[in-house]
Design goal:
binds zinc ion, two-stranded parallel sheet
């Protein structure tokens, strides 16, 4: 036993050393980012600092029974089961208020995020792309808990002008009642790391969503973490 006890600290030193060496040789410095230890927790914090384990795929993806702005049964039409059911309840409530919502983009695999981010970088450069697009492994869409939403016509989908629509106003007022938050609110770019995205909602469950909504804070502030 004594031998084993003495060996364990040495072994962990070796493991840590390997990690540091690998980390320094990686030009993207991804190894220095923190990996979420409970990626399937509905309140998981994923941002520029915390990433998902490599190629994480949620194990309960379903097709939410709500309209989308496209017809195909493809990857981005999926979400995890719990948020998918909450989304259906929310879309039905909106409908009874005369607001017709549609899904634009839900779950996104790490491979899809890599393609998307690289396209944005070649179009706008790294600095600008980082303001609106997550790096691979850092997207909430990969958690299966987030979805971009628009009106049923798809007008202003994932565009700044969406903020002025009745659909955006309804979401801002009611999303928390169904467990969703506007993940990247106006004026919080220095905390979330992203510009205002009134269309990007994130499921965190009703209790946390209500607290975040009532306090006018972000998920980072909810956890007391400001660094990004
Ligand atoms: Zn989004």
């Amino acid at each position: 036993m004594t031998i084993i006890k003495n060996l364990i600290p040495k072994l962990s030193f070796i493991v840590v050393s390997i990690f540091i060496i690998v980390g320094c040789s990686n030009s993207e410095q991804e190894e220095s980012k923190k990996v979420a230890s409970h990626p399937s927790d509905i309140a998981v914090l994923i941002n520029k600092e915390f990433r998902l384990p490599e190629n994480y795929v949620p194990n309960d993806l379903v097709y939410p029974d709500v309209p989308f702005i496209f017809n195909e049964k493809i990857e981005k039409r999926q979400m995890r089961k719990e948020p998918a059911e909450a989304l259906k309840r929310m879309f039905e409530a909106a409908k009874s208020d005369g607001i017709h919502l549609a899904g634009v983009s839900g779950y996104r695999s790490e491979a899809a995020q890599t393609r998307l981010y690289n396209n944005y970088v070649s179009k706008d450069g790294v600095e600008e792309a980082d303001r609106y697009s997550a790096r691979p492994g850092h997207s909430e869409h990969q958690t299966g808990l987030s979805i971009d939403v628009s009106g049923i016509t798809g007008e202003f989908a994932v565009e700044d002008q969406f903020a002025n629509t009745e659909e955006a106003k309804w979401l801002d007022k009611h999303a928390h009642e169904y467990g969703f938050i506007i993940r990247f609110p106006k004026g919080k770019e220095d905390i979330t790391g992203y510009k205002y995205k009134p269309w990007h909602i994130r499921y965190v469950g009703k209790d946390i969503a209500t607290e975040i909504h009532e306090k006018g804070i972000t998920l980072e502030e909810y956890y007391g973490k400001y660094s990004i």
